[in-house]
Amino acid sequence: MERVLGIGGYFLRAEDPAALGAWYRDCLGLDADEHGLWHQEAGPTVFAPFESGTEYFGSRTQQTMLNFRVRDLDAMLAQLRAKGADVAEETQDMDGVGRFGWVTDPGGNRIELWQAG
């Protein structure tokens, strides 16, 4: 059986794609090139379907949520707050999994940040 090798891309609708791309670069350090190609660090990826009524993604209209691995969650959240980003106050600790925090991008997409632990 053939299998997928990994996530090959994540695509977002945006009113202003250039501005949203700049936000990801300036706030999260996502250094994609002019074609959107980004060489990420090796690490785990979680694929997990959620119940349709979940509120975990924030807005009920958001059908998917992007999760980024981070080295230091507290430092990333402080960086985002310093740049005026919409950062959730709460964080979550999951034994054996790590720590989580959330930010909403200027397009209204809730993003999860994960410090593996």
How is this fold's topology laid out?
Blueprint: H1 17-28, E1 66-69, H2 73-82, E2 86-87, E3 92-94, E4 98-104, E5 110-116
Parallel strand pairs: 1-5
Antiparallel strand pairs: 2-4, 3-4, 4-5
Q: Could you characterize what this model shows?
A:
The protein is an alpha+beta fold. The protein is 19% helix and 20% strand. The protein has helices spanning 17-28, 73-82, and strands at residues 66-69, 86-87, 92-94, 98-104, 110-116. Strands 1, 2, 3, 4 and 5 form a 5-stranded mixed beta sheet that branches. The mean pLDDT is 94.
What summary fits the major beta sheet? 5 strands, mixed
Report the structural category. alpha+beta
Pick out the low-confidence regions.
none
The shape, in one word, is globular
Domain VOC: 6-116
Protein name: Glyoxalase
Organism: Kitasatospora indigofera
InterPro entries: Anthracycline_SecMetBiosynth, Glyas_Bleomycin-R_OHBP_Dase, Glyoxalase_6, VOC_core
What's this model, at a glance?
The chain is an alpha+beta fold. The protein has helices at 17-28, 73-82, and strands spanning 66-69, 86-87, 92-94, 98-104, 110-116. The mean pLDDT is 94.
What tags apply to this protein structure?
five-stranded mixed sheet; single chain; 117 residues; alpha+beta; globular; 20% strand
